[in-house]
Amino acid sequence: MSESALPVPKTTILVVDDERNIRRTLRMVLEGAGFEVAEAESAEGALASLDDLEIDLVILDIRLPKMSGIEALEKIRARPESRRLPVLMVSGHASVAEAVQAVQLGATDFFEKPLDRERVLVSVRNALKTWQLEREVERLRGQVQHRYEMIGESPVMRRLFAQVEKVAPTNGRVLVTGESGTGKELVARALHRLSQRNKEPFVKVNCAAIPAELIESELFGYERGAFTGAAGRKKGVFELAHGGTLFLDEIGDMSASAQAKVLRALQSGEITRVGSERSIAVDVRIVAATNRDLEADVAEGRFREDLFFRLNVVPLRTPALRERASDIPALAVSFLREFCRENGLREKPIDDDVLEALAERTWPGNVRELRNVVERMAILSGERIGLDDLPSVGRLSRARAAEDLSAAASERPSSAPLPLPPDTPDGDDRLSLRDYREYAEKQYILATLDEVAWNISRAAGLLGVERTNLHKKLRAYGIRRDDEV
Ligand SMILES: Nc1ncnc2c1ncn2[C@@H]1O[C@H](COP(=O)(O)OP(=O)(O)OP(=O)(O)O)[C@@H](O)[C@H]1O
Ligand SMILES: [Mg+2]
Fold it and tell me: How far is CA 298 from CA 87, 264, 286, 434, 457, in A?
């Protein structure tokens, strides 16, 4: 920013001096440069003004009747909200000792009477510019943090945040339960971030994703030659998380033998690599999560009771989105902003009635589903997001079903086979689930259009989407009448 762009409109400077003439001179100089000026005759008066007014900078005389300027500076720096406020100190007589003390106590700058107009303005402008930059840096830092934080003002979320704050700094084991997509992983990460372990690793294992025969080596590592194919030694996640947090996700899906091994590790605080005799002490804080009803699993013998009790020292539950509908508008706006920013788009406005409609839905897929819907609307909408862009509920449940291929298969009329993805070579070039979903969606739209001889209204009806939305989809997928199925 160039020098001439300052002063920022409505920058208020508090002038503190017991001499009326000095206050008047400073007021003239500062107002002449476009600043607003507030005055105080004493240090006490200055501290009161800081409480009452929005002050951007203070010019503080060192010699004041009762409380000295130096004491006032100390008080200003002691308050969190003014710790970094620019404070320029003024002294009647050049006293090096005072100047040094003032700077040590955090004065931003220091000058002597008689006041020199240019000197004052240069100092004020520099101080304001630095402060502005600091605030900008802080704002950006806040944004980055925001990405990992959870949005929620509703009573259920406030309660959850309070619990997280309380247990995070302890070593207590936490079991996070809640429906799919409610933010269990975010809670686990917040527990780590707010703990003293936050400089150490956070390691996540998805217990459901690891085949039963690999889980032991994944958890505890192995030694060279422990089994066929174990060419080297490898650390398991317990060791990798040493000093930090181990997040055992989908704990309810662990096999009985894995449960027994985890239990042993929790009981002893030690692990043994596969193929080793030696046990190794590990210091990990365990956070587990599941969307299953673990108590029911225990009652029915699917989950070990002793392990359940060891994991469930502090139970936390992430509420379903429908239990906190009041949070939906803020979540939607935040996802939209994030999405637009990530894709370098100008932020699209979203109509209030869209937010209301979103808040009325029940969201079986919870926050994840809301996020997907917002992302989709952001892509398919025009300049702004209006009711027309809202996918119908019927279509939502269909889209969800498509995520589960077997469910999708059962929903389709038996005569229409589930579309198969185009031939893909083995290995790395497999289609991602997302690409497959798009592929399947496109095929389904094409098949439906053929069924109704390309009558868009009827097709939209069958598909459970608005006509305008179907048009957008056709454009998005580049579907035209002469397309080959
Ligand atoms: N309170 C929240 N604020 C912002 N984003 C959230 C919030 N809760 C969840 N999300 C987002 O929703 C998505 C799902 O969250 P997460 O993966 O933590 O859920 P989960 O409960 O672990 O789901 P699953 O049981 O399917 O593993 C993520 O993209 C996450 O960032
Ligand atoms: Mg999860």
Answer: 64, 18, 20, 35, 51
Ligand 1, from 149, 157, 368: best to mutate by most atoms within 8 Å of Cβ? 368
Please indicate whether residue 449, judged by its CB atom, sits closer than 6 Å to ligand 1. Answer: no
- Report the separation in Å between the CA atom of 207 and the middle of ligand 2, taken as the mean of its atom positions: 11
Let me know: does 247 contact 202? Beta carbons within 8 Å: yes
Single pTM value for the model:
0.58
Phi, psi at 106, each rounded to 5°: 105, 20
Q: How far is CA 429 from CA 404, 422, 435, 439, in A?
A: 21, 11, 12, 15
Residue 41's SS3 state is coil
Which two three-digit tokens encode residue 259? 């449960």
How does pLDDT run across 327-337, given as a tens digit for each residue?
Answer: 999 999 999 98
User: Which atom from ligand 1 is nearest to the alpha carbon of 249?
Assistant: 27
- Ligand with smallest separation from the Cα of 290: 1
For residue 323, report the distance from its CA to the centre of ligand 1, in Å. Answer: 15
CA of 242 to the centre of ligand 2 (A): 22
Q: Report phi then psi at 295, rounded to 5.
A: -65, -40
The model's pLDDT over 445-471, given as tens digits with 9 standing for 90+, comes to 888 888 888 888 888 888 888 888 888
Q: Which domains does the chain possess? A: 3-145 (3.40.50.2300), 165-318 (3.40.50.300), 322-390 (1.10.8.60), 414-485 (1.10.10.60)
Residue nearest to atom 25 of ligand 1 (CA): 180
CA distances from 469 to 34, 39, 379, 445, 466 (A): 53, 61, 12, 12, 5
Measured by CA distance, the residue closest to atom 23 of ligand 1 is 181
Greatest Cα pair distance, the chain, in angstroms, is 97
Question: Does ligand 1 lie within 6 Å of residue 185's CB atom?
Answer: yes
d(CA 411, CA 402): 9
Provide the CA 409 distance to its chain's centre, in angstroms.
36
Q: How far is the CA of 181 from the centre of ligand 1 (A)?
A: 5
Residue 157 CA, closest ligand 1 atom number? 1
Q: Which atom of ligand 1 is nearest to the CA of 367?
A: 12
* pLDDT single digits (tens) 160-176: 998 999 999 999 999 99
Sheet holding 285-290, edge to edge: 202-206, 245-249, 285-290, 174-177, 314-317
% of residues, the chain, pLDDT over 70:
86
* Strand segments (E) across 258-386: 270-272, 279-281, 285-290, 314-317
